[in-house]
Write a structure and sequence with these properties.
mainly beta, repeat, 299 residues, 1 helix, single chain, globular, WD40_repeat_dom_sf, four-stranded antiparallel beta sheet
Length: 299
């Protein structure tokens, strides 16, 4: 038995909302999108969020570095801005690309950046200096995953997943994973899960990158995958306007969250956060709204 309740609808962005990121406090999170606004939200409040920064282009990715109290903002067609999340002031910036920035991950002092020019840019965060560039593909790099065994997986618009050693950024393995762009990657133990523009959800051996299972999961592109803290359930966000909830062990669909039945989104669902705080699932969309969902699953 699965019960879905929409707890909060946040509005305030004037354009599509593309990305979400956890906040410093358990009840906080950040959002950004086509309007260039970076907004801080408090899940204990249902009113408007707090604008903490604004850039002059769309933002596809935010990355919190909690130990440094930094929020890294990826401004498309320029580079990054560093926002101190305590003072809400910009403390640094670096221009290094004229393309879109689709994802960022932090490994120690390094920031790994996936760009629309097919390059993986490695930045020394304390020094705000580019230390490495890898030309990986002639198409967009869409998602990065830092694996538990010290590798970086890169999903790209050519349909490939590529595995690099972080120690020396040498290519270890590559597989033609999907028939179209690989938008999202998630690791669960020795399993890698990928979602693609081809609307398929695929499961891979994390070591060998051999395919284990492929599911026709949505009608259109899968934009993101999120995992509940207990690891028992996954949620997928799609261009088909739905959020789907999956039993991971059975790899089985158990609920569809849509407009007709649950006051879901009107257009593409772009990003998900499954928070530990009250077990809330947060979603954002091209419809300019952010939804907060309570998902009660009883076996």
């Amino acid at each position: 038995m699965v019960q879905i309740e929409k707890v909060i609808t946040y509005t305030g962005h004037s354009d599509a909302v593309y990305t979400l990121e956890c906040g410093v406090e358990p009840h906080q999170f950040y959002s950004a999108g086509g309007d260039g606004n970076i907004v801080e939200w408090d899940l204990n409040q249902t009113d408007a969020g707090r604008l903490i920064a604004k850039v002059n282009a769309s933002v596809y990715c935010l990355r919190l570095v909690p130990e440094r109290h930094l929020l890294v903002v990826a401004q498309n067609y320029e580079g990054i801005h560093l926002i101190d999340v305590l003072s809400h002031k910009e403390v640094g910036s670096l221009r290094f690309t004229d393309s879109a920035i689709f994802d960022m991950k932090v490994v120690g002092d390094l920031l790994l950046v996936a760009t629309g020019e097919g390059k993986l840019i490695v930045i020394d965060l304390p020094k705000l200096k580019v230390v490495h560039e890898l030309e990986i593909s002639d198409q967009n790099l869409r998602d990065l995953l830092i694996t538990s065994d010290g590798h970086c997986l890169v999903g790209s618009s050519d349909g490939y997943i590529r595995k690099y050693r972080i120690s020396d950024f040498q290519l270890v393995k590559e597989v033609e994973a999907h028939s179209n762009s690989v938008f999202t990657l998630l690791q669960k133990g020795n399993t890698i899960i990928s979602g693609s523009r081809d609307a398929r959800l695929k499961f891979w051996d994390a070591t060998t990158l051999l395919e284990d299972e492929s599911i026709n999961a949505h009608m259109y592109a899968i934009n993101d995958i999120a995992e509940r803290k207990d690891g028992a359930y996954l949620a997928t966000a799609s261009m088909d306007k739905t959020i789907k909830v999956w039993d991971y062990a059975q790899r089985k669909l158990i609920k569809v969250i849509d407009k007709a039945r649950h006051q879901g989104h009107l257009t593409s669902v772009n990003k998900l956060l499954w928070m530990e705080y009250k077990d809330f699932l947060i979603s954002c969309s091209d419809d300019r709204s952010i939804g907060v969902w309570r998902i009660d699953i009883k076996k």
